[in-house]
Amino acid sequence: MAEYTFFTNPMSRGQIARWALHEVAADYEQVLVDWKAKPAGLLAANPMGKVPTLVHHSETGDRVVSECAAVCAYLAEMHPEAGLLPSDAELADYYRWLFFAAGPLEQAIVGKSMGWEVPKEREGMVGFGSFDRTLAALRGHFSGNAFVCGARFTMADVYVGSQIDWGLTFGSIPPDPEFVAYAERLQARAAYKQAKGIDNDLIEETRK
Question: Do 175 and 149 belong to one domain?
């Protein structure tokens, strides 16, 4: 049995988790999920039926991890040999931007995509304030940093970078120079290319 069972669909956030799996060279078996007929194994592991869901077949028993940011962080912890955990000096940026991307950034992007407008006087009631303020904060960080933690790639870049990469591809994030340059650095990574190649091939197969 592989160390991990990976429930995914190539046209989903599962692409983020696959990239993370490849960054740590994890031994995994994929289970492709049909939206209309979700496998019993997925529903047993995650009653919400969401992908990605990862089952770690550890020495102490099966452990279930869902939510992309959590999957990324968990894999980095389980595979310290990959060198993707933050140093003490990098820890603040690592957690700050990982959770920023999982919270305010995703909320801001989804809200804009859905056409939801937050009244100016109520911006303090939502975690992202406004789409423009959220993007400005992220843009400001990458104007002076090559990666989330400065000059070095960490697992936080898999999640934060996926949000930006996806947003640039589908137009939900503007092609500002800081975002484009960051995405290009990530796209040059071998693990990114491997993971994307698998998902792109699977997407092509579904179209035949």
Answer: yes
